[in-house]
Amino acid sequence: MATDTPIRIGVMGCAEIARKVSRAIHLAPNATIAAVASRSLEKAKSFATSNGYPESTKIHGSYESILEDPEVDALYVPLPTSLHVEWAIRAAEKGKHILLEKPVAMNVAEFDKIVAACEANGVQIMDGTMWVHNPRTAKLKEFLSDSDRFGQLKTVQSCFSFAGDEDFLKNDIRVKPGLDGLGALGDAGWYAIRATLLANNFELPNTVTAFPGAVLNEAGVILSCGASLTWEDGRTATIYCSFLANLTMEITAIGTNGTLRVHDFIIPFQETQASFTTSTKAWFNELVTAWVNTPSEHTVKTELPQEACMVREFARLVGEIKNKGAKPDGFWPTISRKTQLVVDAVKESVDKNYEQISLSGR
Fold first, then answer.
1. Nearest to 265 by CA among 103, 102, 127, 136
2. How far apart are CA 154 and CA 209, in angstroms?
3. Quick check: 153 and 205 in contact, CB under 8 A?
4. Angle between helix 16-27 and helix 306-324 axes, rounded to 10 deg
5. What's CA 154's distance to the chain center, in Å?
6. Catalytic residue among 102, 322, 338, 347, which?
7. Is position 102 annotated as part of the catalytic site?
8. What molecular functions are annotated in GO for this chain (predicted)?
């Protein structure tokens, strides 16, 4: 892999999250930052300087301009969600592979248009959900699929909340209907939904029902909400997301034989390692005053931060297509679409006074 020339990535938009992903591109062994674009040349220049971009980085004063750059293989697109459908399609039509920030679109109909453009032009698309690339996640999946230690999944709970300050709640693009109009659901709920889908082997639920009590701002953007999900065989899940509660990010998955718990699944407590706890066939002592078989903690070392693992995998797929004529990997757009479908269903349920939404056939 290291012998191939690095994949040349252009950063399309100078959002806050682009700082973290720029560092990840620097750290990924098979990728390099080739260009950056903003709607103003000045902003692109100062972004490149303050993020230590290589001297050779091309600076573009418009999004159109970076699309035409022949020295860019792929684009990282951290634009507001409402702009994804236009710019991701235009990128695909120019043959650029796409690492697209989440949520991938305002709704699944928009995302389907993006995927159609990617398929028509043979380009890879992957969303920017970083935690699924953490080496810990492979270990979580291993435990969840272990019929002895975990058994059959019965229920999963996942939440992600953080307390936005006054400035965030007034000015952040995630509270503006015309920008990231899916609010806390698209931003934080995306992760909790992805976690419940991952635990369910990416099988879509049959029904999605939002809990009464969602909080919306004056512009109608969701600041906090929750939902229950059900599957045909009786599996259930609950998700909760909020901009109004203390920083918390949890997965609890309960099976017939075991339980999995993760307390920092989106951003690990430490960059260099990530932990999770498992318990199998837990029970009480004879007097029922204590547990026997208490949960055990497992720690996975991470040589590269998870966002760099994401870039490395994206660049690997792009390299396979560019250098070996491989086909794009359909796994990534498939799980993006499923996550977006559930996001859409939660929003639809909130909009319809917490009605149960059926996902069968979608």
1. 136
2. 18
3. no
4. 60
5. 24
6. 102
7. yes
8. nucleotide binding
Question: Backbone phi, then psi, for 234, in 5-degree steps?
Answer: 95, -5
CA distance 197 to 186: 15
- Sequential pLDDT tens for the chain (362 residues): 445 799 999 999 888 888 899 999 999 999 999 999 999 999 999 999 999 898 899 999 999 999 999 999 999 999 999 999 999 999 999 999 999 999 999 999 999 999 999 999 999 999 999 999 999 999 999 999 999 999 999 999 999 999 999 999 999 999 999 999 999 999 999 999 999 999 999 999 999 999 999 999 999 999 999 999 999 999 999 999 999 999 999 999 999 999 999 999 999 999 999 999 999 999 999 999 999 989 999 999 999 999 999 999 999 999 999 999 999 999 999 999 999 999 999 999 999 999 999 998 78
Q: What is the pTM of this model?
A: 0.96
